[in-house]
Design brief:
This is Voltage-dependent T-type calcium channel subunit alpha-1H. With 253 residues, the protein is mainly beta. It contains 3 helices and 16 strands. The chain has helices spanning 38-50, 70-83, 212-215, and strands spanning 25-30, 56-61, 99-102, 110-118, 123-128, 135-139, 143-145, 148-151, 154-163, 169-177, 184-189, 201-204, 221-227, 233-237, 244-246, 251-252.
């Protein structure tokens, strides 16, 4: 509070240390805010710069009132993820025990469970179901995780995927349990119609036609962190500090 007269400000006699220069600050104001006006927040921005803030990000949202909007929550989430310390050994991999489906041309699907990961080859051991129960070392692109998801409010399980020529998801095979049916009905669904579970580990595909800053992420493993209102997903990318927003068609299960 600025001398007790306005909110959203910075005290002129604020006592700070040298640590302020290296402290990340996100300052969001609304141009429609009549309580903490942009006149006040711009003065506060100038004062923070005078005090030595070097990592200040100041944003004015044109339609924001005196409120916390979904856009602000999204900005704060991205800011905190980038600002908080991250482990240098940022391991993102499919957890052991995850059920998977494997399809081979001319054969019915086989099923198994993840039973280890070989970092040097970027492949997974899969313990196959069946009498022999053998293990196979398989690339992640050769199987589909049986992720539990929802489709039009119904519980469903992913059982397969179809990739486009550029590596994007063309469609997903989803097994849905109908209330009156004893068996699961499998449907081919567009990727944007399937809500993937938060926390799932997937792989980026078809990123070569995206913005240049995203093209280098093609093929990287990711962990899904948030479902956004515009239908995209915020994901944690292997080796990257900040979250990345991607379309469902780029997430390969």
């Amino acid at each position: 509070m600025l001398r007790g007269h306005c909110k959203g400000g910075v005290p002129w006699h604020l006592d700070v240390t040298d640590a302020l220069s290296q402290t990340p600050i996100l300052f969001v104001s609304g141009k429609c805010d009549r309580t903490a006006t942009v006149y006040t927040t711009r003065m506060a921005q100038e004062r923070l710069l005078e005090l030595g803030a070097q990592q200040l990000r100041y944003l004015e949202l044109p339609d924001l009132n005196h409120e916390i909007s979904p856009k602000v929550v999204e900005l704060v989430a991205d800011f905190l993820w980038a600002a908080l310390p991250q482990s240098k050994d940022q391991s993102i991999r499919i957890p052991d025990g995850m059920k998977v489906s494997l399809y081979s041309a001319g054969y019915e699907a086989r099923t198994g469970a993840i039973d280890g990961f070989v970092q040097s080859e970027d492949k997974y051991w899969v313990q196959m179901d069946g009498p022999d129960g053998h293990r196979e070392l398989i690339e992640s692109g050769a199987f589909t995780q049986q992720l539990h998801t929802t489709l039009a409010g119904q519980s469903a399980i992913l059982v397969g995927k179809r990739l486009a020529d550029d590596g994007c998801i063309e469609s997903l095979s989803v097994a849905v349990s109908e209330p009156s049916a004893e068996v699961l009905e499998t449907k081919q669904i567009a990727p944007h119609r399937v809500q993937l579970p938060v926390g799932a580990v997937l792989q980026l595909g078809g990123m070569k036609k995206c913005a240049k800053r995203l093209q280098c992420l093609d093929g990287r493993r990711v962990r899904l962190r948030q479902v956004l209102q515009d239908g995209r997903y915020a994901v944690e990318v292997q080796g990257e500090e900040a979250l990345v927003r991607v379309h469902p068609r780029h997430l390969v299960p």
